[in-house]
Amino acid sequence: MFLKVQLPWNVVIPAESLDIKGLMLQKSIVVRLLDEFASRKATKDLGYLLALTTLESIGEGRVREHTGDVLFPVVFSGITFKLFRGEIAEGVVHKVLKHGVFLSCGPVENIYLSKLKMPDYDYVIGENPVFMNSKMSKIEKGSTVRFIVIGTKWLESEREFQALVGLHADYLGPVS
Amino acid sequence: MLRADEEDASELKIGDDFLKAKCLMNSEVAILLEHRCDQMKHMSGDSTTQLPQVLEKSLQYVKRFSRFTNQGSVKQVREVLSRYQLAEFELAVIGNLCPENVDEAKSVVPSLKTKGRGHDDEAIERLLNDLLMVKKFE
């Protein structure tokens, strides 16, 4: 699910970027914020950070001792993406393995649909392996699949989420 | 924050922070991100600029999974769905998946079935019809 959230953040402006002209300060803050936002990629609580939409407010700056840098508490709105347990969403298959398939959904690529979670589908070996059920419904590379999220996991070192998904509800499965 | 094992979107348990957050439909995100990407390319003065990966992947995703593409109808979808006392999360799921019948709607948004919320089959039917109308006149 894509979300629009308000986030408090601390922005440190190096002393040399401080300008007497007020407008430049706001620009430095935005530039700095964008940089940090882009390098952060995702956080455990908020999910993937996609875009910053508006800078809502800039608080009183505090000068840091020794360096002379100024820290500004700011609040901004941004767009994030997070998968929730129990959520139903659609994704695209990008890898078919014997034991299941990997899907991507939004910025998340490690979404695993295990063979055990689609019991009526069988693996069909071939140059382009597929999963197929008795009604000839196919799950192959490039297919769109509607799934339910069983669980998610945050990987701190990669700053990424993994998700396990299943097809155990009505109206789930490949979408044509 | 909720503990991971308490989270359950089918019962609308997604944590207080997120219940208050505005959920966006894929179609809305497509409009926002496309605008943002154009801006970034414009700012760097180079149309071949590499976008951050997370942004690029999301943009491709929302383009593929947008049910509505026209800005006016995207706005209308939200207006129409807002009349039905849905939680933000439910509204976005319905707007993203556009269920074709009442049964499907209740399956993809199980919280609709919660008693006492006034979402009987008739109300859901009306909602889906309204949604279909927006799509028809897009």
From TrEMBL, chain A:
A GO biological process held by the record: DNA-templated transcription initiation
GO molecular-function terms, A-Z: single-stranded DNA binding; single-stranded RNA binding
Statement: the UniProt record of this protein carries the keyword Zinc: no
Pfam families: SHS2_Rpb7-N
Location relative to the cell: Nucleus
Keyword terms of this UniProt record: DNA-directed RNA polymerase, Nucleus, Transcription
GO CC terms: DNA-directed RNA polymerase complex; nucleus
Highest taxon listed in the record's lineage: Eukaryota
InterPro entries to which the protein is assigned, alphabetical: NA-bd_OB-fold, RNA_pol_Rpb7-like_N_sf, Rpb7-like, Rpb7-like_N
Chain ranges of the RNA polymerase Rpb7-like N-terminal domain: 10-68
Transmembrane spans: none
Nucleus listed as a keyword: yes
Function: DNA-dependent RNA polymerase which catalyzes the transcription of DNA into RNA using the four ribonucleoside triphosphates as substrates.
Protein name: DNA-directed RNA polymerase subunit
The species this protein was found in: Prunus yedoensis var. nudiflora
Taxon lineage: Eukaryota, Viridiplantae, Streptophyta, Embryophyta, Tracheophyta
UniProtKB/TrEMBL annotation, chain B:
A biological process term (GO) from this entry: DNA-templated transcription initiation
Localisation per UniProt entry: Nucleus
Main location: nucleus
Domain of life: Eukaryota
Gene Ontology CC entries for this record: DNA-directed RNA polymerase complex; nucleus
Gene3D superfamilies reported for this sequence: 1.20.1250.40
Domain RNA polymerase Rpb4/RPC9 core per the UniProt entry, residue ranges: 16-138
Keyword set, alphabetical order: DNA-directed RNA polymerase, Nucleus, Transcription
GO molecular function: nucleotide binding
Annotated signal peptide: none
Family to which the UniProt record says this protein belongs: Belongs to the eukaryotic RPB4 RNA polymerase subunit family.
PANTHER family assigned to the protein according to its UniProt record, in alphabetical order: DNA-DIRECTED RNA POLYMERASE II (PTHR21297)
Protein name: DNA-directed RNA polymerase II subunit 4-like
Species this protein is from: Prunus yedoensis var. nudiflora
